[in-house]
Every structure is written in C-alpha cells, then in structure tokens.
From TrEMBL:
Alphabetical UniProt keywords: ATP-binding, Nucleotide-binding, Transport
ABC transporter domain: residues covered: 2-217
Keyword Transferase among UniProt keywords: no
Top-level taxonomic group: Bacteria
Xref: InterPro entries: AAA+_ATPase (IPR003593), ABC_transp_ATP-bind (IPR050319), ABC_transporter-like_ATP-bd (IPR003439), P-loop_NTPase (IPR027417)
Protein name: ABC transporter ATP-binding protein
Family: Belongs to the ABC transporter superfamily.
C-alpha cells in the first residue's frame, strides 16, 4: 500500500504547488487522479514515485515511512516503482536505440544479463516490432517512443506504476493499446496503479476509482 499523508511540495522555497494533500493506493488497486493542467497533480505523482522530496508530510510504503528520495532511496524502494511521463521525448535519451532505452534500468541495477530476454518479452507486449528496436527516438513516432518508455517502466517488474498523463499526447488507438498493456501487466503481477490525467472518461473507465484534485486540495 502507498500512502501520502499531508504532502506539501514545490520547486521554489515558500512557493508550494501541492499543499497538504493526502492520497492512498491500496495493493493491487488502480487509482485515477483527475485534475486540470497546472493544479499540481504531476508534482504529487513525482513525490509518490520517489522522484521529488516533499517539503513536508509523510509517504509510507507498506506502512513504513520513506525517508529518502531519488538516488538516495534504497534500491529496493526505487525499483518498486515504474514511471511513465507525458512527454516521452523529454524522458528518453536521444542517443539510445529503443532496445537500450528499454534496458536502461536493468543495466543501472547490474542486471545486464537479463536484457535480451526482457526486451524480447516486453517489445511485443507494448506493440513494438523488432525493426523499431534498433531505431533511435528521432526515427520513431511519439506513440512508438511512448511504447518504449512504458516497456522501460515495466522492465524491472515494479509493483506500483505511476502513469503521469501517459496518453495525453497520443492518438486514441495508441492510447488504448498502452492502457491495455498496463492492464495486462497488472493482471499478471498484481501491481497497483496511480494514473494521473485530465481526461475524466479515460480515468473512470480505466481505474477502480477516480479521485478529483479539488477534493484533495
């Protein structure tokens, strides 16, 4: 279970973009966080994924308080989360072919021997054909790159996925395919999901429950 208790967070001292917000995602549950652009939901998602340290408040994972964020968090905590961002091109190294992009977390955690098997397993699961895996980000479409970013998020078999506007910049068919890939992964692993977005219809169809930002804030 992931618990965010009274989180206040921002990027400039004394100017928080999230104020005293609490949210819970139970084990295996899918929760949609619905809100307009600029409300702070992406900042809260980054806190939830241990990518941004809050100014105050407490984050608990399975009842244990988290005390460190980003590279200072223990590896077992960092690898428990998989994150997919809205803008794939800002979260992908333009120098890497898609195979290496997907494999980044494996190599970073000393599991390079697993690369071939995991890429071969994940590529078809997210809809990437073998010819795309040798291409670099500038040689593929936004949708194809986001598929690779989803595979990267899944490669360490996380038990909690954070999808921050994952489908916002994609066409309807690609968005549906990525949601289906996430749900297939969740069905096989029991992973929980925090899906952040502004599309009420998508979140209410996708998630077990949807939380409105104006209720949290």
């Amino acid at each position: 279970m992931l618990e965010l208790r009274s989180i206040t967070a921002g990027y400039t001292r004394n100017a928080p973009v999230v104020r005293d917000v609490s949210l819970t995602v139970a084990a295996g549950e899918s929760v949609g966080l619905l809100g307009p652009s600029g409300c702070g939901k992406s900042t809260l998602a980054r806190v939830a994924a241990l990518l941004h340290r809050p100014d105050s408040g407490t984050l608990l994972l399975d009842g244990e308080p988290v005390r460190h964020w980003r590279h200072r968090a223990p590896r077992a905590l960092r690898t428990a989360f998989g994150v997919v961002f809205q803008q794939a091109r800002l979260s992908a190294d333009p120098r890497l072919p898609l195979t290496d992009l997907i494999a980044e977390p494996l190599r970073a955690t000393g599991r390079g021997r697993e690369v071939a098997d995991r890429v071969a397993e994940l590529a078809p699961a997210v809809g990437l054909t073998p010819d795309l895996l040798t291409r670099r980000p500038y040689e593929v479409s936004d949708g194809q790159l986001q598929r690779a970013c989803l595979a990267r998020a899944l490669v360490l078999r996380p038990r909690l996925l954070v999808c921050d506007e994952m489908t916002a910049m994609l066409d309807a068919s690609t968005a549906a395919a990525l949601v289906a890939a996430v749900e297939s992964y969740r069905a096989s692993t029991g992973a929980a999901l925090l899906a952040v977005g502004h599309d009420r219809t998508l979140l209410e169809r996708w998630c077990d429950r949807t939380v409105h930002w104006d209720i949290l804030a």
